[in-house]
Design brief:
36% helix, Rossmann fold, single chain, 9 strands, 277 residues, alpha/beta
Length: 277
Amino acid sequence: MGNKKMASESVKTATPVSSTASDDATGRYGSPAPHVALVDQIFATPKAHTEDFEFGAETAAVFDDMVSRSVPFYGEIQRMVCDLASDFAVAGSSLCDLGCSTGTTLLALHDRVDPAVRFVGVDNSDDMLEKARLKLAPLDGQREIDLVNADLNNCRSVDDSSVAIMLLTLQFVRPLYRERLLRHVFEGLRDNSCLIVVEKITGSDTLLNRLFIEHYYDYKRRKGYSDLEISQKREALENVLIPYHYEENRDLLRNVGFRHVEEFFRYYNFCGLIAVT
């Protein structure tokens, strides 16, 4: 899920929860795993000092629950990403998930995409990649899958690809390197191929941006997060997740060469874009 820092802390005890914690009842597009998941309680107790958010062992252990309760319509976003990716994936090419985290998207895509499409999952968290390996293990022998540890600030993993995916990833890449990364993605895609981007964004209008954020926090409360959890996670993400305006993301994609850029999803301060070479 983006350019992630490594965490050195050990995994805290977490509460088991069934896979129905996801907003997708089938469990295929956002539930943690076919077995018992763990509830995200990372920010449930007061912290004397909030460290920058990291994607290490503690986060990896609860990530599937965290993302399904933190991202509105996460299950539907996964379905839409799979729909669009399957439209463009071509046998003999690669499909590259940049910021693949625990491999949820690649697993969901397997039944939708020709087995002759090679899957490449890129993340810079060993803990996330280990979760992805376990989740994708049942697919061994059914298609070629490469999981790569790489820093997206200097990524060179997109090559001869028909689809690239950045699902809540670009926002974690340092702004200085975002255009360079997108240019690499564009150059690594075949003609008439696509990049699918989902991002948390910031609004251009101050009033509407504030209202959108307030409504988003209401959503998190409905998903069981306390005000303490919301506040401490916001502080932890402040220097790590840097959202752009919708127009900035759109213009970045156009500037690196994509011919068509279209919005396919919007919920307050979350946005999905598809860009075609």
